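Changelog-adjacent note: as of this version, every example in the card shows the full chain rather than a window. The one below runs 244 residues end to end.
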Amino acid sequence: MKLTIIGHWGGYPKAGEASTGYLLEHDGFTLLVDCGSGVLSHLQKYIDPTELDAVLISHYHPDHIADIGVLQHALLIQYFLGKSKGTLPAYGHNEDAHGFRSLTYKQFMEAHEYNENSKLTIGPFSVTFVKTKHPVPCYGMRIEADGKSIFYTADSAFKHSFVTFGQDADLLLCECNFYGGMDASGAGHMTSLDAGRLAHESGAKKLILTHLPHFGDLEQLVSESKTIYKGEVQLAKQGMEIVI
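Full-length structure tokens:
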């Protein structure tokens, strides 16, 4: 699997960058996980929107879905320009009916529902889900292919169930919106210490901190995580590519 970080900011993107969006590629199949503000612009550095094979959405906060409508218009325009792969499947939960309906657009995008018990096959990827602790319904996901795995927490406060769900993942892509010692749980997010604890207790082989805050010294997040987790820790950065 190849993971490319398209956007990694929480809430809103910094100038010239993007909020949450990740491109997964394997065996010629392209999967976009979340589609926040600025994602479509930066996605085009790597692939044309019409080259996407599927989209997977964790929840319907704007920093994770703001560019869905923009992506739909891109597919519409490219269709009239003679370039189309047909209907793009978009997977999301239906606990927010309006958000779920927004994933369907004419003949260009069609919504497909998942829930906590779903086991999806999306191209070469096997995907399972875990409910997160966030102000709105949100799902973390474990994405596997050819014996390799990524646990993407999406947005959440720390949950003990994550430890079992993410056991021995090759990559933990963990939200980290607060610094150690801050109260993140009330906002439905994790601190650097929560991320380090999750990586340590689940036996993750590598930790990438993402959904980053707009304040403080971000390198402090890494150093704080390393006080608990002794494996490799990196900050998510736009354009970062990880092959698993």
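Structural remarks: The helical segments are 39-43, 62-65, 68-80, 97-101, 161-165, 192-202, 218-225.
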